[in-house]
Amino acid sequence: MIAMLMAILVPALRRARNQARTVVCQSNLRQWGLVFKTYTDDYDGRFFDNTPRYEYFRITKPYRCEYSDLTACPTAARVEPFGPHGEERGGWGNTFSMWERDYGWPDYEVAHMSYGLNGWVAYPKLLVLQENYLRTWDFPGAANVPLFFDSVWVEEMRMFDNTQEPPASEALPTESPVCCIDRHAGGVNMLFLDASVRKVGVKEPWTLKWHRQFETAGAWTRAGGVQPADWPEWMRKFKDY
Description:
Distance between the termini: 43 Å
Strand order of the largest sheet: 7-5-6-8-9
Largest sheet: 5 strands, mixed
Number of domains: 1
C-alpha cells in the first residue's frame, strides 16, 4: 500500500515542484522587464547604445538593486566550473546550470546567470549589420520579439537567419540558439519586447522575430517545410511550429 501511494505521490510532487520553479522563473523575467524599462526610460527609450552587448549584466546592476536576486532560474541555479571557451572568457551553462563570465577590466567581475539577452536589441560600437538592430521597445509585432530568456550563454546573436541548425544534442548547449533547451517541460520561459512573458517550445525559436530582417517562416519551421525527421533525435519528441 505504501509503495502504491509513493508511486502516485512522487510524480505529483515532482510536477508541483517543477511548476513552482516555472512560476518563479516567469516572475524573474517580468521583473527583468521592469529593469529594462527603467533603464531605457533613462536613455531616451534605447537599449545599450554604443556599448558591447554583453555589458548589460553590469550596466543594469543599479536598476536591479530594488529587486531580489534575478540572476537564476530555480531550475538552473547550479554554477558550472569556470573555464575558457573559444575566444570568450567564461564558461557556458547548460539546461540545469548557469553560465559564468569574467568581465575583466576594470574590476574583473565574474558574473553568473541562467538567462540571456537577445543581442539584436542593443546597438554596439561596431555597426555591423546595423539595419537589423531593434534598439527600442517600439517595434511592430513586439509580442513575437525575444528580449530576455532562459539561456546557456550571455546573449543570442547567431540567430542571424532561419538557416541556423539546431543543436545536435542537448548536451552541446554551445550551439545556437542558446535558448534551445528543455528547461521547463518542453521549452524555456521568455520575456518579449511587449513586456509579456510566456513559455516557448524547444522548436519555437525559429519562428520568433529575432531582428528586423529575420525570416520567421524559414527552413526550420513547418511553414518552411521542415519535417519531423529533419530535427536531431533529441528534439523530435517536441511540438512542431
